[in-house]
Amino acid sequence: MAANFLRQNSVPDKLDEQKSVVIDFIEHQKTLDRKVVLVTSGGTTVPLESKTVRFIDNFSVGSRGASSTEYFLKEGYSVIFLHRNRSLKPFLRHLSGYNFLDLLQLDGDEPNSSVRVKPEHQKQLSSILHDYERVQADRSLLNVEFQTLSEYLHLLQVCATCLQSLGRSAMLYLAAAVADFYIPKSEMPEHKIQSSDGPLQLSLQLVPKMLEPLVKEWVPQAYVVSFKLETNKDILVSKSLQALEKYHHQLVIANLLETRKREVKLVTVDSCVDITMTTEDLSHGQEIEENIVKKLKSLHSKFCSIDV
Ligand code: PMT
After folding, report:
1. How confident is the model at residue 17 (pLDDT cuts 50, 70, 90)?
2. pLDDT at 207
3. Cα(289)–Cα(223) distance, integer angstroms
4. Which residues make Cβ contacts (< 8 Å) with residue 296, sequence separation at least 6?
5. pLDDT (tens digit, 9 = 90+) per residue, 66-112?
6. Beta strand pairing status for 46-47 and 170-174?
7. Cα separation, 206 vs 5, whole angstroms
8. From the CB of 30, is ligand 1 less than 6 Å away?
9. Cβ(160) to ligand 1 under 6 A?
10. Which domains occur in the chain, in start order?
11. Is the distance from CB of 269 to CB of 249 less than 8 angstroms?
12. 24 confidence band (pLDDT: 50, 70, 90)
C-alpha cells in the first residue's frame, strides 16, 4: 500500500540532493556520538490539480514541532526538522507575532544609516540569537522542507531509512498533521478546475498509514513516537492503544485539538502518563513541549540501554 503510494505519486524535484544532505548530517552526528531525532512538523497540502491552484489543507501551524525541536537541541540531541514550508521554525517562531521592521531602528536620517535593534527588543533577540548561533556552530540542526502530502511521505521515507544506521540512538517524533485523504496523481486534472463547469464533486482516496512500513522496514530499531489527535476525549486513549497494537512502536502522544498546549497523555502499551500545564505555568511562558521532551529523553535512554 505505502510502496504503491510512493511509486505512483510525485517525487520531490530535489529528493536525491536532499537525501545526500541528510546522509552527511547523520554521518557527522555519528562521529560526535550524538543521538538524533527526526521531528516532523506542520500540515500537508493535498493538491486538487497537477498545475496546482487549489489544495486542501489543515489547521496545523507547526508550533509543537518547532518548540519541541528547540528543547531536543537543549537536551543534547541533534535534530532533523522535517517541516512544512511557511510553518513555524525553531528560534524564528519567537518573532512570529512581530513585524520584523518594527524591531529595528535607523541610526540617522540618511537612507544608508546603520541599522540596530531597538533597545526594548535587545534582550529577547540576543537570547534567541545566542541559542541559534550555538546550534549553527554545533551543526546540530538540519532543516528539510516539504509542502504537499506526497513530498512529505517521500522525505519521511528518505529520512527514516537514513536513520537506520543509528540503530537505537535514533528517535522519530511524528508531530506533523498528515492528510488522511488525497487525490491520486492518475485521477488529478492537469489544469485549473473551472468554476464555469458547475459545483465541484471530489472523490478522495485513503492515504496509507506510513507508520506501518516505517516501524517494520524503514527504521525498525529506532524509538518511534507518534501522535494521536482527536476532538472527542472519550476515544483518545483507546485510539492511541489501537495504534500501538497495530504498529508496534514505542509511544503515542495523545492530544485534543482544543487543549493541546496544556494537556497531553504519553501512552505506552502498559502506561498512561499525563503531562499538564497550569494556567500559571503558561502565563510564565513555560511550554508543555519542554516537559514532553524531558520525559522522552529519559524513556529513550532506558530504551537504548536495553540489551537486544
Ligand atoms: O502543529 P500544531 O498547530 O502545534 O499542532 C500540533 C498537532 C496537534 C498537529 C500535533 O500535536 C499532533 O497531534 N500531530 C499528529 C496529528 C495527526 O495527524 O494525528 P492522526 O491521528 O491523524 O495520525 C496519527 C499518526 O499517524 C501521526 O503520528 C502521523 O504521523 C501518522 N500518520 C498519519 C497519516 C498517514 N498517512 N500515515 C501516518 O503514519
Report:
1. very high
2. 96
3. 18
4. 171, 173, 225, 251, 266
5. 999 999 999 999 999 999 999 999 999 999 999 999 999 999 999 89
6. unpaired
7. 10
8. no
9. no
10. 2-98+115-194+201-305 (3.40.50.10300)
11. no
12. very high
3-state secondary structure of 9: coil
Nearest of 171, 187, 184, 277 to residue 224 by alpha carbon:
171
Q: How far is the CA of 171 from the centre of ligand 1 (A)?
A: 16
Which residue, chain included where needed, has cell 540596530? 116
Whose C-alpha lies nearest to ligand 1, atom 30? Answer: 174
pLDDT at residue number 9: 83
Q: Is 150 in the pocket of ligand 1 (CB under 6 A)?
A: no
Q: How many Å lie between the centroid of ligand 1 and the Cα of residue 70?
A: 19
Task: Look at the block and give the residue holding cell 498533521.
Answer: 177
Residue 124 in 3-state DSSP? helix
Ligand 1 atom at minimum distance from 63 CA: 4
**Cell output for 72:** 531536543
Residue 132's nearest CA partner among 96, 98, 93 is 93
- 46's enclosing H/E stretch is strand 46-47
- The dihedral of CA 225, 35, 212, 19: what is its sign? positive
Ligand 1 proximity of 45 Cβ (cutoff 6 Å): no
For residue 103, CA distances in Å to 74, 88, 94, 245 come to 26, 19, 13, 50
* 285 conformational bin, left if phi > 0, alpha if psi -120 to 50, beta if neither: left
pTM comes to 0.96
Protein residue closest via CA to atom 18 of ligand 1:
177
List strand residue ranges (DSSP E) for 169-305, in order: 170-174, 181-182, 205-206, 223-230, 251-256, 263-268, 271-276
Q: Regarding beta strands 46-47 and 55-56, do their DSSP bridges make them parallel or antiparallel, or are they unpaired?
A: antiparallel
| Dihedral angle sign, alpha carbons of residues 230, 233, 238, 244 | positive
